[in-house]
Design a protein that fits this description.
By secondary structure, the chain is an alpha/beta fold. It is 26% helix and 23% strand. The protein has an 8-stranded parallel beta sheet. Helix 8 runs parallel beside helix 9 (264-270) and helix 8 packs parallel to helix 10 (273-279). Bound molecules: beta-D-galactopyranose.
């Protein structure tokens, strides 16, 4: 079986980890990577499922040497193999970034015509996760415009040929509708352009990713981009919503903040165990919006426990307001549900007909509802 099918054992649930880009862009180095891996363990993130430590753009030199990608030794003096060993010694996995085009988006050497060689190199380094970007993939930077399904299939084949299990993360920003062709090609694919650390951007990405729910499933996930939680551009309430929405959409949860210095409230958002459990549920269904009434929304995700759903009440508006869900919105009538608040980790009791709560501006309440039998 090829990549992207659940039977290759990778990404049966959405991958979780950290990626250097959102917070650090080009300001990366070996020490940052090691300290981040250490912080992933000491903060409790590893315990709740975070696993991949991913080096994004800017680790490589501008040009290849003898046909090979080269590491910027000034910032990664020990090399990638040693870094992978270190990350593995902490019980974590190491991810890396390249680009299918001539250059990476920051103009470092890309993998154009070199997928096989580069996949081999990453496997030699004991890499566990490869993100493949799409900059400089069209003329005049390449001889012929690259075709995304073909270029990423080459990457899939190259990865399979190495014999090393590596998650393949497709990053062509949704340009060629990867949800239509990538199910058997990659484990996750970006569905949108880059996220920014503000509410408007998160909402734009949310709406684009929401409608793609039928395409996600075990081994192949819609990727609405990495998390901005903790980067400072949104309120704590908004970050809690951002995280809840990504969880109910079964998105890969890739933290994008500085794990070494994060505040307690940020750490509590990123490690909320029952919210993460919604994301990581083994049924692998991407939740969807079932009610949209002005700026009040209700989202719903069926869970692997029969008769159980995660339900998100989401206030997109600028004022606190009550948001209600009736069980008939979920297609269920004459039912009593047992309700639990997943942020507070508190049982709320039995509810006939529906449930309602007062939700702050840009806030959420995430509950799990279980059919009473
Ligand atoms: C973008 C990509 C970002 C980041 C950046 C690096 O194309 O969407 O996630 O990887 O390139 O230059």
């Amino acid at each position: 079986m090829g990549l992207g099918s659940v039977s290759d054992g990778l990404a049966a649930v959405p991958p979780m980890g950290w990626n250097s880009w959102n917070r650090f862009q080009s300001r990366i180095n070996e020490r940052l990577l090691k300290e981040t891996a250490e912080a992933m363990v000491s903060s409790g993130m590893a315990r709740v499922g975070y696993e991949y430590v991913v080096i994004d753009d800017c680790w490589q030199t501008r040009r290849r040497k003898d046909g090979n990608l080269r590491i910027r030794r000034d910032i990664f003096p020990g090399g990638m193999r040693a870094l992978a060993d270190y990350v593995h010694s902490l019980g974590l996995k190491l991810g890396i970034y390249t680009c299918a085009g001539r250059w990476t988006c920051q103009r470092y050497a890309g993998s154009y015509k070199k997928a096989e060689r580069d996949a081999e190199l990453f496997a030699e380094w004991n890499i566990d996760f490869v993100k493949v970007d799409w900059c400089f993939s069209q003329r005049p930077f390449v001889l012929e415009d690259l075709d995304a399904p073909a270029a990423y299939a080459q990457w899939r084949d190259a990865v399979v040929r190495t014999g090393r299990p590596m998650v393949l993360s497709i990053c062509e920003w949704g340009k060629t509708k990867p949800w239509e062709w990538a199910t058997t090609v990659g484990h996750m694919w970006r569905t949108t352009g880059d996220i920014r650390d503000n509410w408007k951007s998160a909402m734009k990405i949310l709406d684009a990713n929401a409608v793609l729910w039928p395409h996600a499933g075990p081994g192949h996930w819609n990727d609405p981009d990495m998390l901005e939680v903790g980067n400072g551009g949104m309120t704590e309430e908004e970050y809690r919503s951002h995280f809840s929405l990504w969880a109910i959409m079964a998105a890969p949860l890739m933290a994008g903040n500085d794990l070494r210095t994060m505040s307690d409230p940020v750490r509590r958002i990123l490690t909320a165990p029952e919210v993460i459990a919604v994301d990581q549920d083994t049924l692998g269904v991407q939740g969807r919006r079932i009610v949209r009434s002005g700026d009040r929304e209700v989202w719903c995700k069926p869970l692997s426990d029969t008769g159980t759903w995660a339900v998100l009440l989401f206030n997109r508006g600028d004022r606190a307001q009550e948001i209600a869900v009736s069980w008939s919105d979920m297609g269920l009538d004459d039912i009593e549900f047992f309700v639990r608040d997943l942020w507070l980790q508190e049982d709320l009791g039995n509810f006939y007909e529906g449930y309602a709560a007062f939700i702050p501006r840009h806030g959420v309440e995430l509950i799990r509802v279980r059919q009473k039998i």
